[in-house]
Structures are given as C-alpha cells and as structure tokens.
Amino acid sequence: MATLTSAQHVFMFLWIIGSVAAGDLKAKPGKDVTLPCNNPTGSAVTKLVWSRPGLKDKYVFFFRDNRSYETNQDPRYHGRVELKDLQMKNGVASVVLKNVDIDDSGTYECEVTISSISLPVQSINLTVSKEDSEDSVEVRANAGENVTLQCNSSTDAAITKIKWDRPDLKGLSVFFFRDNKLHEIYQNLRYRGRVERKDPEMKNGNASVLLKNVTVNDTGMYQCWVTTPNMPGKLLRSVHLIVSERPPKVPSSKVGLGVALGLVCPLVGVAGFALGRHVGLKSKSGPL
Ligand SMILES: *[C@@H]1O[C@H](CO)[C@@H](O)[C@H](O)[C@H]1NC(C)=O
Ligand SMILES: *[C@@H]1O[C@H](CO)[C@@H](O)[C@H](O)[C@H]1NC(C)=O
Ligand SMILES: *[C@@H]1O[C@H](CO)[C@@H](O)[C@H](O)[C@H]1NC(C)=O
Ligand SMILES: *[C@@H]1O[C@H](CO)[C@@H](O)[C@H](O)[C@H]1NC(C)=O
Ligand SMILES: *[C@@H]1O[C@H](CO)[C@@H](O)[C@H](O)[C@H]1NC(C)=O
Ligand SMILES: *[C@@H]1O[C@H](CO)[C@@H](O)[C@H](O)[C@H]1NC(C)=O
Ligand SMILES: *[C@@H]1O[C@H](CO)[C@@H](O)[C@H](O)[C@H]1NC(C)=O
C-alpha cells in the first residue's frame, strides 16, 4: 500500500528528529486564529488530537473516524475549535480557534495519526496580546497568482536587512536582502527568482515582498525579520499563506473556494526546521 509506505517513511524520517516546532503565532484578543498542523504524507487522517501540555487528560480538539468528539474536550474550548478544512483534503490538519483571549496564550500540540501510525507531535506557540506587534495574518491565493507578503516596519530608520523565512523549511531563507541587495546564496532554491521587494526605495521602512507565481507548495508560515542600525533583527510579521489549486475554468464556478491544499514538501521542510533550529540555522543565513 503506497499510502502506508509513504506514511511510514515520513514517520521514520521525523522520528529521528523528535517533535517538530512549527512556529510562533501572534494575535489580538477577539480574533480567530488558525493553528497550523501539517500532514506531510497527504493521506487521509484517521485521528487528530490537538492538546496543550498543561491540560491533563483534556483536549483542545479531538477528531477520529471523520468526526470530532467533545467528551474530553476542555470546557474552555467548547464550541471554539473547528477543523480548518472539513474534509482534511490533502491531510491539512489545521484548526481554527475562535475568539481568542489572553489566557489562550501558550503552546499547542497536534498529533496526526494515519492508519495506526502517529506522526511526531508538532507544536506551535500562540501569544494573544493587546499590545505589541501586529496579528499574524492569513492570505489566500490561487496557484499561478502573485502574492504580496506584507510587512511594515514602523520605524523611519533605514532598513539594513530584510529576511523572510519559512520556519518549516530547512536553513535557507525565502528572501534575504542586505546592504541594499538581494543575496540569492542565502535563498532557498525554490524561491530564487520568484521574490522581489514591493518597495525598492524602502520608503517608510516597507519590508513587503512580492512572491510570484505561487504553487500549492508555497503554503506555509512566512516570517518577516527586519534589522535597522539601532534594532537587531526583529520578527515583525507572520503571514500564513494558503495556496489553492487554480479553480477549474468553468463559468460561474464556485469550486475551489476556500479549499486549502496541504503542504506537499514538509518531509524535508518540517524535519529540516527542527534540525535547523537546534543546530543554529541562523548562522547559516548570515550574521544579523
Ligand atoms: C514555545 O515556547 C516554549 C516555552 O517558552 C519554548 O521552549 C519553545 O521552544 C517554543 N516553541 C516555538 C516553536 O517557538
Ligand atoms: C468524511 O466526511 C466528509 C464530509 O462529511 C465526506 O465527504 C467524506 O467522504 C467522509 N470520509 C470518510 C472516509 O468517511
Ligand atoms: C506576476 O508578476 C510578473 C512580473 O513581476 C508579471 O509578469 C506577471 O504577469 C504577474 N502575474 C500575475 C498573475 O499577475
Ligand atoms: C502598511 O502600511 C500602509 C501605509 O502606512 C498601510 O496602509 C497598510 O495597511 C499597512 N499594512 C499592514 C499589513 O499593516
Ligand atoms: C508597503 O507596501 C505595501 C505593498 O505594496 C503597500 O500596500 C503599503 O502601503 C506600503 N507601506 C508603506 C508604509 O509604504
Ligand atoms: C508558474 O509556475 C508553473 C508551475 O510551477 C510553471 O509551469 C509556469 O511556467 C510558471 N509561470 C511563469 C510565468 O513563470
Ligand atoms: C510540489 O512538491 C512536490 C514534491 O516536491 C512535487 O512533486 C510537485 O510537483 C510540486 N507541485 C508544484 C505545483 O510545484
């Protein structure tokens, strides 16, 4: 069975590395937040468990055999958690946590089981806060489109470095700009030639970039790091990009709307992030 083989393969690969850190999310109170969870195999999910390390025996979200169960759900999450994609197409196992509050801040873990194989736990840190930086935003696009990844720096100071990363990809950046030029050697191959600055004049410290001709494989979390002469590299923005297959060319088609397709490459990506984080991927991307 190809499905099982592929799941096993991914499992073994990730197992060596241990649990996987998927990234950090920020939101303001009252917002709905997508907690991303990837299933690198793309196979249908048998069981999906979202939990928080502090909640003993209680779940944030529990899904098995195509339905969710509230029995052991922690009361604070009743009615607030939904699957992002009802049919978990391509194995996306993300959920939406609605109307977040400050005390929703903390670590969330998802565990995906396919057939009887559990993939390593993925974890994400959510910070809900009134102050501080902007919310993480979600951007949806269809394959083939150009997408702006917005990142504003509030400072007037000249930007010395802009780095866009995808934490789930190994080592190299999505975009690496320093001393007024793009450094392709620090750029992941799949992004070379596809990312450019929106505002080459750096007006108002704008660190937004244009990602061209997106594919479903560009789905993921993008983080914008900006450095100025008096500010060391700072995470200014997280953008969760979801790219759907281009809707079929049928007149008045509503197909494809909101169908988020899964990450196809995380075998390397997810594992790579864990590795990268723990062996100092930052230094590979050049000094800050
Ligand atoms: C989340 O927070 C915990 C505790 O503060 C930390 O150990 C962990 O590395 C963080 N994970 C990520 C993905 O940032
Ligand atoms: C799961 O539920 C969805 C939506 O209700 C349905 O389309 C799909 O066929 C179901 N899958 C299985 C394996 O039962
Ligand atoms: C994307 O941008 C490129 C140039 O930057 C342009 O040639 C192309 O037409 C754009 N594609 C779309 C779908 O807008
Ligand atoms: C970036 O700044 C511009 C101009 O100040 C503003 O219109 C835009 O909404 C900002 N974008 C974000 C994502 O904050
Ligand atoms: C930054 O660039 C984005 C995208 O072009 C634009 O919408 C925004 O207004 C710009 N912000 C500033 C402050 O120039
Ligand atoms: C956009 O990407 C697709 C698939 O990756 C490729 O076939 C196509 O040639 C690309 N289009 C442009 C304008 O680069
Ligand atoms: C996405 O990645 C997979 C695996 O690397 C590859 O087989 C597939 O062609 C890619 N799809 C697109 C649209 O680039």
TrEMBL record:
Q: Where is the Ig-like domain?
A: 30-127, 144-240
Entry's localization field: Membrane
By its UniProt entry, which Pfam families does this protein fall under? V-set (PF07686)
Q: Which species is the source of this protein?
A: Dissostichus eleginoides (Patagonian toothfish)
Q: Which residues form a coiled coil?
A: none
Looking up PROSITE patterns in the UniProt record yields: IG_LIKE
State the taxonomy lineage. Eukaryota, Metazoa, Chordata, Craniata, Vertebrata
Molecular function as annotated in GO = signaling receptor binding
Which InterPro entries does the entry mention? Ig-like_dom, Ig-like_dom_sf, Ig-like_fold, Ig_sub, Ig_sub2, Ig_V-set, IgSF_BTN/MOG
Q: Which residues form the signal peptide?
A: 1-22
Annotated keywords = Immunoglobulin domain, Membrane, Signal, Transmembrane, Transmembrane helix
Q: Could you name the Gene Ontology cellular component terms for this entry?
A: external side of plasma membrane
The protein here is known as: Junctional adhesion molecule-like
Which superkingdom, per the lineage? Answer: Eukaryota
GO BP annotation list: regulation of cytokine production; T cell receptor signaling pathway
Q: Which chain regions cross the lipid bilayer?
A: 255-275
